[in-house]
Amino acid sequence: MSDAAPAPLAPAEAAALERAVALARCGVGAVEPNPPVGAVLLRAGVPLAEGFHREWGAPHAEAEALAGAGEGARGATLVVTLEPCSSRGGAKKQPPCVDAVIAAGVRRVVIGALDPDPRHGGAGVARLRAAGVETLVVDAAPTRALLARFAAHLGKQRPFVVLKWAQGVDGSWASADPAARWISGEAAREQVQRLRARVDAIVVGSGTVLADDPALTARPPGPRPLVRVIVDPRARVAASARCFVDGAAPTWWVTGPLRAGEPAAPAGVERLPLEAPRDVAQALLPLLHARGVRRLLLEGGPTLAAAFLGAGVVDRAWVFVAPRAVGGAPPSLPPLPPASQARLVPWGEDLWYQLEFA
Ligand SMILES: NC(=O)c1ccc[n+]([C@@H]2O[C@H](COP(=O)([O-])OP(=O)(O)OC[C@H]3O[C@@H](n4cnc5c(N)ncnc54)[C@H](OP(=O)(O)O)[C@@H]3O)[C@@H](O)[C@H]2O)c1
Fold first, then answer.
1. What's the pTM?
2. Any residues with CB less than 8 A from the CB of 188 and at least 6 apart, and which?
3. Which of 161, 196, 231, 287 to mutate to test the pocket of ligand 1 (most atoms within 8 A of CB)?
4. 48, 88, 179, 337 - which has most CB atoms within 10 Å?
């Protein structure tokens, strides 16, 4: 353990911190509920390698920068926007970055901001210093600003919820023609597969399973295992439903309380009975959070979407609008919360908009 005070911020380190903040911003929108993080490795004041947290489930910024530097990291200075993580516990699926930094032989670490999670804040710094790595905490405003969304979500103890739906220009979510399979075009459907690959769970209501019998898998699969969650308060979904029998991914069947004589879940399906399965905010989301779900994609029909919106637990919405009337009756949804950010772009033959809720 080194007791000497760390040297003050050098001009090359200040420039590297600015660059790390710019890198971190590239992950905004893809990493939540993780914080966006950027990192630069310096040797004698000259940038050697850099990295950022690209998306939920992907390697952390420090890991990327260290991989880029290889043996060159020995004796180098790591400049990183956020205190390196010191545990793999809870939802963290990546190995602790402090271990990697120490193992790589980094001599000095400059940290933009401490981890705002009270369970971890300061622990990374302590571990680095205990291992003899000179560690300076700058506590700079731009690095703290990067953490606003992460810090706001911390206390919520629920997954980050991404709601996705497709509709026609008439607002309809379902075609009047039972033979019509898709509302959106191929590009939008491919994007949905990418969204699925970036979450821990896909959630739908019984209505969607009964109407469409979907597979609810990511094709190709993402870096993390994906769970299918069917919310079926009255246990209406038949044992022969595709997601119950195909074995393609774990399936959790959230129902009301088990009634006497009721058959258990089909083989390979986990039944999760809840007293109040319709209570999205107080029952469903805490259950999923307790089971390790940190980011979920809500792909249900309008009934479940309305329940989530009504409970104020949607963090982001992806909406694909097909350039034609679809024909079914447009659903009535609660008003969307005010969006802190909105993007509207052409997506293949469709129009796509993404809304970020504060
Ligand atoms: N355009 C799109 O993006 C899109 C996406 C998915 C589905 N769809 C279409 O939407 C239609 C199905 O719509 P849907 O609204 O029935 O699907 P849904 O929202 O997936 O399922 C609705 C059912 O979920 C159950 N449920 C679970 N939690 C609930 C809660 N908190 N509040 C209320 N109900 C809850 C209810 O079952 P119980 O009534 O048994 O209690 C309800 O009937 C289909 O035509 C499908 O093709 C369109």
1. 0.90
2. 166, 320, 347, 348, 350, 352
3. 231
4. 48
Question: What's residue 91's pLDDT?
Answer: 47
CA-closest candidate to residue 357, choices 338, 343, 344, 332: 338
Average of pLDDT values for 251-276?
Answer: 92
Distance 181 CA to ligand 1 centre (A): 17
Least confident of 104-113, 266-275, 331-340: 331-340
Give residue-wise pLDDT tens across range 311-356: 999 999 999 999 999 999 999 999 999 888 888 988 899 999 989 8
What is the gyration radius of the CA atoms in the chain, in angstroms?
23
Q: Which domains does the chain have, with CATH numbers?
A: 11-151 (3.40.140.10), 160-357 (3.40.430.10)
Q: Which of 304, 318, 332 to mutate to test the pocket of ligand 1 (most atoms within 8 A of CB)?
A: 304
Query: What residue ranges line ligand 1, CB within 6 angstroms?
Result: 165-167, 173-174, 183, 204-208, 211-212, 231, 233-234, 236, 278, 280, 299-304, 307
Mean pLDDT across 118-136:
96
Q: Which residue has the tokens 């399936």?
A: 251
- Between the alpha carbon of residue 59 and those of residues 62, 290, 346, the distances in Å are 8, 23, 30
Q: Quick check: bond before 223 cis, omega within 30?
A: no
Relative to the CA of 254, which ligand 1 atom is closest?
27
The closest alpha carbon to 97, from 110, 111, 83, belongs to 83
